[in-house]
Amino acid sequence: MSFRFDMRGKSVQQQSIVRQREDNNKLIKESTKPSFDNQKKCNKEELTWEVASRISAYDGIAVKCAGATLFYLCVTRVALATSASGLSNLDGDAVNEWLFDTAKKISHEVEEGYMYFMKDENIKGGELVVSWDLLDRASIDELGL
Fold it and tell me: Same domain for 13 and 80?
């Protein structure tokens, strides 16, 4: 157990209460954390998608298997408007279908539980030109999704 500066000056009883509460919260969080074991068992044919809620300047989809969200794949609106990306002629569902096609290509390589963000420099001629591990990403837990 390490020294906690925020507990300095607190009684032993207060420190014990706070530590017990933190342990309980940790157990609750771990028990309610979604399991992402499905990804390794899913074929590309079993994957489904649904439109993700908009985050800032990104449009995206949630990639799912058996109802469980595996990861999110998002693209900037700048990339959708840039002619070099090859996506400027796509709209609405066509963008989501393109995202899903891209997600199927990388689905067995990406780490589950993350949201991946594609920028205009990552896409050329309608194809992802960088490795998935070079994409910006954020944990689904951190984003509260």
Answer: no
